[in-house]
Amino acid sequence: MQTQTPSVSLIRATSYGREALRESLETLLEPFGGMTAFVKPGNRVLLKPNLLTGARPGKECTSRPELVYAVAQMVIEAGGKPFLGDSPAFGSARGVAVANGYLPMIEELNLPIIDFHGHRYQTVSEEFNHLLLSKEAMEADVVINLPKVKSHVQLVLTLGVKNLFGCVPGKMKAWWHMEVGKDANRFGEMLVETARTINPNLTILDGIIGHEGNGPSGGEPRPLGILGASTDVFALDRAIVEILNVPAIQVPTVAASMRLGVCPELEAIYYPHLHPSLLQIDDWLLPDKFLPIDFGMPRVIKSTFKHLYIRFIKEPMSAYRRR
Fold first, then answer.
1. Rounded to the nearest 10 degrees, how much is the dihedral formed by the CA atoms of 269, 137, 34, 242?
2. Do 234 and 257 form a contact (C-beta atoms < 8 A)?
3. For residues 157 and 287, what is the distance between their CA atoms, to the nearest angstrom?
4. I want to staple 177 with a disulfide (CB 3.0 to 4.6 A). Which of 34, 55, 181, 276 is the partner?
5. Quick check: 168 and 259 in contact, CB under 8 A?
6. In sequence order, which residues have a C-beta less than 8 Å from that of residue 68 and are 6 or more positions away?
7. CA–centroid distance for 12 within its chain
8. What pTM was computed for the model?
9. DSSP state of 234
10. What are the tens digits of pLDDT across the range 107-152?
11. 289 Cβ neighbours under 8 A, 6+ residues apart
């Protein structure tokens, strides 16, 4: 549900327990009309979590299965048909999900989980029309984006916009790092273009426990006690950087969205629950050292080999085993 004035719902939330989390999500989505405002009976609903890696379970590198479960349950109750999809850095979506404790939830709700396959779609900017995007994301009736608050050694922060880079399938992400990574501004614009084209109907951002320091996978868990939601992923990211006291201009995705005119001013956003100023923290840890965004050819080849090794050799022996 889009409105003329972008709205960002922000609440305090401290528990992943089923009842408490469900109550928090209902409060979070109430200003938008609840889940039924987004999902109609029969809709195919893509839930796009952050399934970065199976290598560090428990370190909050990925979206919590408890959050995905609660959202999937709400979608089912609204009459929708949810499925999970992502394109992890290493391995398969199912393998990473299983490694991070998703299996009981997948089996209980009978949720399909897929790896994305790429097709070429018309993007908003002709400059990125050769960008391959997920067929499954583009053809879903509803897209619900489920990012995690994380620091990032290349892009400062991983929030809603960056999470949608997972809709670029397979190892194409590494090739995009190589092609445009030498220019942080252009890389940020590519990520914004991806988000504009996917155009998620709803983004629910998990900041109950974030991942700070040398993220997106090498940092440590950090309780924040917040949940955020919006139909405008750019407005949501803008609000979150304010909460973390990170200058917006330092985050390539947020800076690019401001430069391209798709990110509203902080004061132009409506906050039906809490204003970012009421949630601010002053000691969020960013990476102690930032790495270049661009990947050289040797790194792309090494990354591709590691991805294929995990997916087709290592995962079949362990990640799919029933527990």
1. -30
2. yes
3. 9
4. 181
5. no
6. 47, 49, 84, 102, 105, 146
7. 20
8. 0.89
9. H
10. 999 999 998 887 767 666 677 767 788 899 999 999 999 999 999 9
11. 153, 214
CA distance 97 to 244: 28
Strands 202-212 vs 142-146: parallel, antiparallel or unpaired: parallel
Contacts of residue 126, Cβ cutoff 8 Å, sequence gap at least 6: none
- Phi (first) and psi of residue 91, to 5 degrees: 90, -165
End-to-end CA, the chain: 40
Rg (CA), the chain: 18
Amino acid at 202: L
Q: Which value, to the nearest 10 degrees, does the dihedral of the CA atoms of residues 219, 250, 231, 2 take?
A: 180
Residue 60's region, left for phi above 0, alpha for psi from -120 to 50, else beta, is left
* Closest alpha carbon to 115 in 159, 51, 179: 51
- Spatial separation of the C-alpha atoms in residues 207 and 12, rounded to whole Å: 9
> How far is Cα 107 from Cα 294, in angstroms, rounded to an integer?
39
- The SS3 call for residue 174 is helix
Establish how many alpha carbons lie within 13 A of residue 305's alpha carbon, considering only the half-sphere containing its beta carbon: 6
Euclidean distance between CA atoms 257 and 252, whole angstroms: 8
Maximum Cα–Cα distance for the chain, whole Å?
52
Tell me the CA distances in angstroms from 13 to 149, 160, 176, 322, one per residue in order. 14, 18, 36, 32
- Distance, in Å, from the CA atom of 276 to the CA atom of 242, rounded to the nearest integer, reads 6
Surface-to-core class of residue 122, CB atoms within 10 Å of its CB (0-12 exposed, 13-18 middle, 19+ buried): exposed
The DSSP result for 130-142, as a single string, is T-EEEHHHHT-SE
Residue recorded with tokens 């979608």: 75
Listed in order, strand segments (DSSP E) in the chain are: 9-12, 44-49, 81-86, 113-115, 118-120, 132-134, 142-146, 148-152, 156-158, 202-212, 220-230
